[in-house]
Specification:
The structure is a single chain. The protein is α/β, with parallel strands linked by helices and 156 residues long. The protein has a single domain, classed as 3-Layer(aba) Sandwich (Rossmann fold). Helix content is 33%, strand content 24%. The protein contains 5 helices and 6 strands, in the order βαβββαβαβαα. Strands 1, 2, 3, 4, 5 and 6 form a 6-stranded mixed beta sheet that branches. Helix 1 runs parallel beside helix 5. The radius of gyration is 15 Å and the shape is globular. The protein binds flavin mononucleotide. Flavin mononucleotide (FMN) binds next to helix 1, strand 3 and strand 5. Flavin mononucleotide binds next to helix 1, strand 3 and strand 5.
Length: 156
Amino acid sequence: MKSVVIYSSQTNNTKKMAEAVAEVLNCTMTAVVDAGDLAEFDLVAVGFWYKAGQPDPATQEILPKLAGKKIVLFGSHGAAVGSPPAENGMAKARELAAGADVVATFSCPGEVDAKFLEMAAKKDPQPPWLAAAPAAKGHPDAADIAALKAAVQAIV
Ligand SMILES: Cc1cc2nc3c(=O)[nH]c(=O)nc-3n(C[C@H](O)[C@H](O)[C@H](O)COP(=O)(O)O)c2cc1C
């Protein structure tokens, strides 16, 4: 099975996850914006960061183009693991990838850019995930990466 990891990452949290996935799948990784034609790949692992409750814009664009492929979805968020904002964002990714066979999903907290945190705190109402964001500091950590690797290993 020919695999590739494509990822979107502004502050490297998702990139760190992408590196771990590429290691398990023993495949190359490339930024979503540089992904080009993916016709040759059977399995595409897609890494994204959460923005406004959904996958980041570059990922939103590519997900509908993966119909017919096996895909792994992984993401990082300021939200707490398992919280509605975290779950809803992953559900949105699945929805956008309609027609693809989602073989695994994984998400974990990713440290939120300090400047953005400051800005977001001034919003009224505040985004629903913001209260959990301070706890994302230092993530993804070694345990997150180990759990991600295990999730991907399970489908290899
Ligand atoms: C502009 C902006 C919007 C964000 N929106 C959300 C959001 O809606 N939900 C959430 O859980 N995290 C949100 N975050 C937090 C990021 O998704 C999180 O820090 C992620 O790990 C960043 O990944 P990256 O380092 O790969 O860019 C937002 C961060 C920024 C900068």
